Amino acid sequence: MNSVSIKVPASTSNLGSGFDTLGLAVKLYNVIRVERIAASRIEFDWELPADDRRWFCEALGAASKIFFRSAKVKSFGVRVGLKADVPMARGLGASATIRVGFIAALNELAGTQLSRAALLELATELEGHPDNASPAIFGGFTVSGRIGKSVRCLSVPVSSKLRCVTLIPKFGISTEVARKLLPAKYSKADAAHALNRAALITAAFASRRYEMLRGLFDDRVHQPYREKLLPQLSRVIAAGERAGALGGFLSGSGSSIMCLTIDKPLAVARAMHKALPDSAVTILTPDVKGFQVLPTK
Ligand code: HSE
Predict the structure, then answer these.
(1) Quick one: 60 and 199 in the same domain?
(2) Which residue in 53, 234, 258, 284 has a CA-CA distance of 20 to 30 Å to 251?
(3) What CATH number is attached to the domain comprising 246?
(4) Which atom of ligand 1 approaches the CA of 21 most closely?
(5) Which domain, by its residues, includes 236?
(6) What distance in angstroms lies between residue 8's CA and the mean position of ligand 1's atoms?
(7) Residue 191: exposed, middle, or buried by beta-carbon count in 10 A (0-12, 13-18, 19+)?
(8) Measured in angstroms, how far is the CA atom of residue 175 from the centroid of ligand 1?
């Protein structure tokens, strides 16, 4: 096989207080095409603006290094193409889709048959946290974390009735900047509050009792500190909840804001958009497959 395309779902992460732990895959995709070439370098199929070029070169360079080191096969050069529907720096796991898609493609081209769990180990090393890589790989609602030296992930399927109403602002937020805003320590009360919410959210998804999500997204771990990058956050969530959403939260480290609902997607979308008109709002459904290797044409 000389070329392969991998379709990878976008994802939201954190879901309130499940910081670096909870994730949910959605049906919005990046498709990455990787072709083996004779030269031992990474080439791109499209013109990259200077800033993006640096990110792509570094991200794919590191991914290639880690993949060949851990798969223990001789490295080869590739040409990469991308059909991108997932916006960058919007808290929708775009960087994870690209890293996951790339290493999954190398796995196909090298014939190494690394498992999805093994690919998650690599993607987590590259991302620094597993909460977007897990849904990108396994689909569904995911709970993951580092346990000792490895990464453990459990994924549960999510009802196709759930709607993820996603407000995407015109501006992006850098995860690096957003992480620097967080305190080094939390009070016992805030830690207990977060444990309580993360466990209840997980139980609600695992038992498919989505009505039980109401009131569980009142986070104290990261949202209050990141609100200075997105002052409209509380207003947009409150508007979505007033329109009937089960709850809303900052998607990953932002800038998107997501509200979950079963029966009121249009009303929730309208209300969120009214609270921040300078944005796009899209209604997404859960992806339960994770990345897919597309048949070669
Ligand atoms: N859990 C990460 C964070 C997600 O909130 O920083 C980054 O998209």
Answers:
(1) no
(2) 53
(3) 3.30.70.890
(4) 1
(5) 163-284
(6) 18
(7) middle
(8) 6
267 shares a domain with 148: no
- Cα 191 versus chain centre, distance: 24
169 and 109 in a single domain? The answer is no
Alpha-carbon torsion angle 189, 19, 289, 42, nearest 10: -170
What is the per-residue pLDDT for 201?
98
Closest-CA residue, ligand 1 atom 3, reads 253
**Tens of pLDDT, residues 172-228:** 999 999 999 999 999 999 999 999 999 999 999 999 999 999 999 999 999 999 999
3-state helix, strand, coil in the chain (%, to 5): 40, 25, 35
Instruction: Say what the pLDDT of residue 203 is.
Output: 98
Residues 136 and 219 in one domain: no
Cβ proximity of 137 and 124 under 8 Å: no
pLDDT, the chain, mean: 97
Does residue 147 sit in the same domain as residue 189? no
- The verdict on 129 and 209 lying in the same domain is no
Ligand 1 centroid, distance to 19 Cα (angstroms): 7
Mutate to test the pocket of ligand 1, among 24, 131, 144 (most ligand atoms within 8 A of CB): 131
Nearest C-alpha to atom 6 of ligand 1 is from which residue?
Answer: 253
Pocket of ligand 1 (CB under 6 A): 13-14, 19-20, 91, 129, 131-132, 175, 178-179, 222, 252-253
User: Which residue from 132, 142, 249 has its CB within 8 A of the most atoms of ligand 1, so it is best to mutate?
Assistant: 132
Number of domains in the chain: 2
Nearest to 117 by CA among 80, 142, 86: 142
Same domain, 187 and 135: no
Predicted local distance difference test score (pLDDT) of residue 47? 85
Per-residue pLDDT at 263 exceeds 90: yes
pLDDT classification of 295: cutoffs 50, 70, 90:
confident
Helix, strand, or coil here: 130?
Answer: coil
